[in-house]
Amino acid sequence: MRKPIIAGNWKMHKTIGEAVDFVNGIKDQVKDSTVDVVICAPALLLPALKEATKGTNINVAAQNMHWEEKGAFTGEISPIMLKDLGVEYCVLGHSERRQYFNETDETVNKKVLSALSHGILPIMCIGETLEDREEGKTNDVVNAQVIAGLENVSADDIEKVVLAYEPIWAIGTGKTATPEQANEVIAEIRNTLVKLYGQEKADKVRIQYGGSVKPANVSEIMSQSDIDGALVGGASLKTDDFVALVKY
Ligand SMILES: O=C(CO)COP(=O)(O)O
């Protein structure tokens, strides 16, 4: 019912040449995939990636954007620029942006609303710290991020949003949440969506898991009832691994 979505988040990796080689290395191998395939790349690589993925089933995502269409915001990228390129998705509120670049629920929310109004599909990230988890606050923290990040998102638009549950303690650490732990939190997130939008709408929203996903654990993660995809960092950088993830 929900189309799975496997997204590679390259973070701050790859040059233009490497990005194009990557696409050329995977496009034939993923062309019959029944999942949505997405590469989330640094802004500078997006034009070359859009060109290289033309005529393929590979979607391209930015890793961040400003909520304003234009203005005096040195160093920022606007939704109009992304739309002009034909970028399909944008990752918003990744924990690294929250941690290192002062991203807050409020700015994430502005970006989600802006992305939707410009026809860009947001991949909104949420997740708890190790301390939150140890204090038993996981669901409270994650639900608060969901509610704040989705404020004023209409019932018509909610199914365009992809949520990515990424427990911070599992990112880049090799520690994966067990598939059951991930599914439990994601089911709780869906409950929150039910409260906000009703069951029918909530059932349409895709929720990914992210945090040390790799070819060896992806199929178990994807077999969970509420997990609709993966947002993958490190293991998305090599063509063989990425193809294996898409073919979970
Ligand atoms: O942050 C992540 C994806 O956005 C996860 O990164 P890793 O897969 O490297 O743990």
Number of strands: 8
Strand content: 15-25%
CA-CA gap between termini: 18 Å
**Largest sheet, strands/sense/barrel:** 8 strands, parallel, barrel
Low-confidence spans: none
Strand order of the largest sheet: 1-2-3-4-5-6-7-8
Enzyme class: isomerase
Active site: 94 (electrophile), 166 (proton acceptor)
Pathway: Carbohydrate degradation; glycolysis; D-glyceraldehyde 3-phosphate from glycerone phosphate: step 1/1; Carbohydrate biosynthesis; gluconeogenesis
GO molecular function: triose-phosphate isomerase activity
Structure overview:
The protein has 248 residues and is of the alpha/beta class. It has a single domain, classed as TIM Barrel (Alpha-Beta Barrel), CATH 3.20.20. The chain has 11 helices and 8 strands. An 8-stranded parallel β-barrel has the order 1-2-3-4-5-6-7-8, surrounded by 6 helices. The radius of gyration is 17 Å and the shape is globular. It starts with a strand and ends with a helix. The model has no long low-confidence stretch (mean pLDDT 97). The chain binds 1,3-dihydroxyacetonephosphate. The site of 1,3-dihydroxyacetonephosphate (13P) has 14 residues, from strand 8.
Summarize the structure.
With 248 residues, the chain is of the alpha/beta class. It has eleven helices and eight strands. Helix 1 packs parallel to helix 11 and helix 7 crosses helix 8.
Layout of strands and helices, then pairs:
Elements (H helix, E strand, L loop, with lengths): L4 E5 L6 H15 L5 E6 L4 H7 L5 E5 L16 H7 L3 E4 L2 H6 L4 H13 L3 E6 L3 H5 L3 H12 L12 E4 L13 H19 L1 H4 L3 E5 L7 H5 L6 E4 L6 H8 L2
This protein binds 1,3-dihydroxyacetonephosphate (13P).
The site of 1,3-dihydroxyacetonephosphate has 14 residues, from β8.
